[in-house]
Design brief:
Strand content: 5-15%
Distance between the termini: 34 Å
CATH architecture of the largest domain: 3-Layer(aba) Sandwich
Bound molecules: pyridoxal-5'-phosphate
Largest sheet: 7 strands, mixed
CATH topology of the largest domain: Aspartate Aminotransferase, domain 2
Radius of gyration: 23 Å
Shape: globular
Order of helices and strands: HHHHEHEHEHEHEEHEHHH
CATH superfamily of the largest domain: Type I PLP-dependent aspartate aminotransferase-like (Major domain)
Oligomer: single chain
Number of strands: 7
CATH class of the largest domain: Alpha Beta
Strand order of the largest sheet: 1-7-6-5-4-2-3
Helix content: 25-40%
Structural class: alpha/beta
Number of helices: 12
């Protein structure tokens, strides 16, 4: 990397992006192009000669921006809000600039330690129970997406139960959720090898708030026990994508506990709001959960990707995910002095992506959840 070149081009790139934000409202929010449009605009093979940054940026303006759907436009109301902020953007710059890969503590100690600290800060802001903090057996980790977070905890739960029930019991494991639950759960079941017939999608209570009714869960669990199956994983919701349904966590948690099931709470969509005291009630009962996730890239003005996961028992996760080949061994890990986040996720390598989050968190005390009414006032 040539520092002076970076300085010159970096300033021009920031100008380009700042100008994009200045004019973002002039674009049609949804891209108007037809499938395959870019094939007609770009050559068949990579260019033989380099082009100037100006030429590249001109191409971006003329060929790429028409094919962009402008998620950061104030007129974007599709799917879910995924708004960034200047702090989030600067954090991403820092992360990209340092470009370290902190898969284990020794690979970049600050990466691991900052992540632990920031996840503890956020756990406290959410008023999560102490068991989710890093000082005991619990702790938080940044996953790329909620789908990864759910898969990670499902595999941890699966392996935990199979250690006692035996590997052959995989076909007996049963997962429970309401029909409002995100398809990320179904995907996790597919990857974790849960038999499709053992995924109980229980009808939500459409007469009130689309929440999962505890009686329905109790009945389903009893039926499965009678049939010789093993209930092992319950996914509760705080803010489903389609209906913002909030399940009664405390009651569900009680049922999960009495049946030795792992209770996960998916708050990917709405969990961020619970930092505000007036919304905290929606995660009441989270103390009964084994794990909890929310997407910082949704309501916390942090760039995609950034999904936060807290677990009460980090060892359940690391037992399922750790692999220690010779070339990764080091004294700090062997002495059990450190967290190695490679053992809390699917991939080995990981970004120093939480800079974005930590920068944002420094000003989070006065956080106002963006709503239709106030979003124009939030800087
Ligand atoms: C409640 C809920 N769960 C899970 C997901 C999946 O999130 P991700 O795209 O981060 O995997 C979403 C995303 O829309 C969601 O709203």
């Amino acid at each position: 990397m040539d520092s002076e070149q970076l300085r010159e081009y970096g300033h021009r790139m920031v100008d380009f992006i700042a100008d994009y934000y200045k004019t973002i409202e002039t674009f049609p929010v949804r891209s108007q192009v037809q499938p395959g449009y870019l094939h007609n605009l770009l050559p068949d093979s990579a260019p033989d000669h380099p082009e100037t940054l100006e030429q590249v940026l001109d191409d971006v303006k003329v060929k790429i921006l028409p094919g962009v759907t402008h998620w950061q436009s104030p007129s974007f109301f599709a799917y879910y809000p995924s708004n960034s902020s200047v702090a989030g953007f600067l954090g991403e710059m820092l992360s990209t600039g340092l470009n370290v890969i902190g898969f284990s503590w020794v690979a970049s100690p600050a990466a691991t330690e900052l992540e632990i600290i920031v996840l503890d800060w956020l756990a406290k802001l959410l008023n999560l129970p102490e068991q989710f903090l890093s000082k005991g057996k619990g702790g938080g980790v940044i996953q790329g997406s909620a789908s990864e977070a759910i898969l990670v905890v499902m595999i941890a739960a699966r392996d935990k139960v199979l250690r006692t029930a035996g590997k052959n019991a995989l076909g007996k494991l049963v997962v429970y959720s309401s029909d409002q639950t995100h398809s990320a759960l179904q995907k996790a079941c597919q990857i974790a090898g849960i038999h499709p017939e053992n995924c109980r999608v229980l009808k939500a209570d459409t007469s009130t708030n689309y929440a999962l009714r505890p009686e329905l869960l109790k009945e389903a669990v009893s039926r499965d026990l009678e049939a010789g199956l093993i209930p092992f994983f319950l996914c509760g919701n705080v803010g489903t994508t389609s209906s913002t349904a909030v399940d009664p966590l405390a009651e569900l948690g009680k049922i999960a506990k009495s049946n030795e099931m792992w209770f996960h709470v998916d708050a990917a969509y709405a969990g961020n709001a619970c930092i505000c005291p007036e919304y905290r009630q929606y995660i009441d009962g989270v103390e009964t959960a084994d794990s909890f996730n929310m997407n910082a890239y949704k309501g916390l003005l942090t760039n995609f990707d950034c999904s936060l996961l807290w677990v009460k028992d980090q060892y359940a996760v690391t037992e399922a995910f750790s692999a220690n080949p010779e070339y990764l061994k080091n004294k700090a890990s062997e002495a059990n002095l450190v967290v190695d986040y490679k053992d809390w996720q699917i991939a080995l390598s990981r970004r120093f992506r939480f800079f974005a989050l930590s920068l944002r968190s420094t000003s989070i005390k006065g956080y106002v959840y963006p709503t239709l009414e106030n979003q124009w006032d939030i800087k």
